[in-house]
Amino acid sequence: MASENIYTPRQQYVLLILCLVGLSVLILVGLGSYITAFLGAGVLYVVLRPWFTALVHRRRWSRQLVTGGLLLFAFVVIILPFTALVFMLVNRIRLYAQDTSQIMVVLHTIEQKTGYQFTTENNVRDLVQQVVSWLSTRIPSLASGLLHFTVIIGLMLFTLYFMYMEEEAFLRGLRRYLPFRSSTLRELGDALRNTVNANVLGQALIALVQALLTALTLQIFGVADAWFWGTLSFFTAFIPVLGTPLVWGPAAILKLTQGHTGEGVGILLVGTIVIINIDNLLRIVLARRMGDIHPLITLAGVVLGVEIFGILGLVMGPLLLSYFIVLITVFERENRTRRRTLLGRREAAEEATPLPPPLPPA
C-alpha cells in the first residue's frame, strides 16, 4: 500500500514555488561572475536583430550563415575595439598609479599659481590607487584574468548564437513564462529597444564623435597624450551633464596655469562651442530614430548600473529604471481597469435587482 503524502495540495504548491525560487537563487549565485555575458548577449541581440530580421525573415537567407556573420561582426566591430579601449584606459591608469610624478608636476603648478597647498604625493598616490581599486571591481578585464575574460566573451557569443538560431523558441518561452500580459510584454520590448538604441547605438555614436573631437582639439593645442585623453573622454561622454568637460576642462586649466593662455582659451572655446553643441545636435537628430531617454533616468541609471553590473551598467542601469517606470504605468492602468470593471458590475447588479413593492396605504 502506497504511503499517503503528508502535504496538502496547497502546501505542495507553496513548496514547489519555494523550491523553484531557491534553485533560481543558487543558479544566479553560481553564475554571478558570468552574468555580464548573458546581459551582453541580450543587448547585442537587440542591437543586431533588425539585420537578422531583414536578412532571414524577409530575404530568406540562410539562418546559420547570417548568424555566423552577425557574430563575426559583433566580435570584430563591437567587442574587440571596446575591449582595446578598456585595456588602454586601465593600463594607463595603472601607469599613473605607479608613477605619480607627472600628476604631481601639474598639481604643484596649480599650487604655485593659486598659492594654496592642498595635496601631497602620498595623498595623490592613495587617490589613484583608490581609482584603480574601484575600476577593478567595475571592469571585468581588470578584475579577472585573461582566461576568465575569454570565457565571458565566448559565453556571450555562444548565448547570442542560440538566441538567433532558436529565436522562435526563445521568444515563445519568454511569452509563456514571463508573468505579464501581451500588452505589457510589448511595452517592455519597446522600453528595451528604446533604451538600447538610445544608450548603446545613439550614445556610443555621440561618444565616439566627441572623443575624436576632444583628441584632435588636445592634439592641436599641444596637450601631451592627447589620444589617451580622447579615449578617456569616450567613456566620460556616457555620463549625462558632466561628459567630456571632465577631460578637456582640466586640460584647459592646466594650460592656463602653465602660462599658455592662448592654448587654454582655445581648448575652452572649442569645448564649449563645438564639442558640447555637437552632443546636443546629435542627440536631437538621433532621438527621432534611435529612441529618447530622459537625462535624469540615464544619470540615475548609470550610477545604479555601474555599481551593480560594472561597465555594462551604462546600458543595464537605465534599462532597469525604464522597466520600473513601465511596470508602474502598467500597474496603474491595470488597477484603473479593474476598478472600472468592478464599478460597472456593481452598477449592473443594482440595475438588475428588482425594486421592493410599494407599501400599502395606511
Automatic annotation (TrEMBL):
Subcellular location: Membrane
Keyword Membrane: yes
Pfam families listed in its UniProt record: AI-2E_transport
InterPro entries: AI-2E-like
Membrane topology: Multi-pass membrane protein
Membrane-spanning ranges: 12-31, 37-56, 68-90, 142-164, 200-221, 227-253, 265-286, 298-331
Family: Belongs to the autoinducer-2 exporter (AI-2E) (TC 2.A.86) family.
Protein name per its UniProtKB record: AI-2E family transporter
Organism: Hymenobacter rubripertinctus
